[in-house]
Write a structure and sequence with these properties.
The chain is mainly α. The protein has helices spanning 3-8, 20-29, 36-42, 46-50, 54-60, 65-79, 99-104. It contains 7 helices and no strands.
Amino acid sequence: LSRSAMAAVSLPHDPTTWAPQQVQAWLRENSFQEFVVPFATYSFNGQQLLAFSAEGLNKICPSSKERRKQLIKAIQSINGPSPISPSLSPTFGASAGADGAAAAA
């Protein structure tokens, strides 16, 4: 993602600080419009975006496998050299919540 693209959508340099609306703006800016509605539905933030796997994307947006691969590659390009903790990986369904975080503490 170029600096000019980031400036065009007024995104903070650190994607881990992005709010759900900023994640959606990044998706639009990078031609991943088909993922905007599913991401908005779950209100995924920047940390969750960076933690996405191909399997997770398939659960929320079963678009073409090639498009999911392209999105994962784009996410990896903004993620930088140090991957985000797997414990921040997005969860799906009614069972997701703070209980897991409390149990881990």
